[in-house]
Design a protein that fits this description.
- The chain is of the alpha+beta class.
- It contains three helices and three strands; from the N terminus they run H-E-E-E-H-H.
- The chain has helices at 2-21, 50-53, 57-87, and strands at 23-28, 33-38, 43-48.
- The two termini are 15 Å apart.
- The mean pLDDT is 87.
Amino acid sequence: MALDQMKMLAQLKKAQNELKKELVEVEAGDGAVVVQINGELKVKSIKFDKELVGDDFAKLEKWTIAALSDGMEEAQKMAAEKMKPLMGGLGSLGL
């Protein structure tokens, strides 16, 4: 039993490390704002297209919030899908 638990924890750790490397990229404002978020839900980059944004900072703020919200949602789904097969075995670990 302990060997199974150790194996499950090792698989969980491996999946968590893989999530650090996986990126979700979303855009808002037809590409005016592009955000990359990894599987740990950390923002890795935000890029702005100056041609599309111009001087309209109200739109820039709106697009940035939209891109971050969409990116977080997609990254959460990606992480949940990756962890789903491992989570079933965690009940026996007392977690």
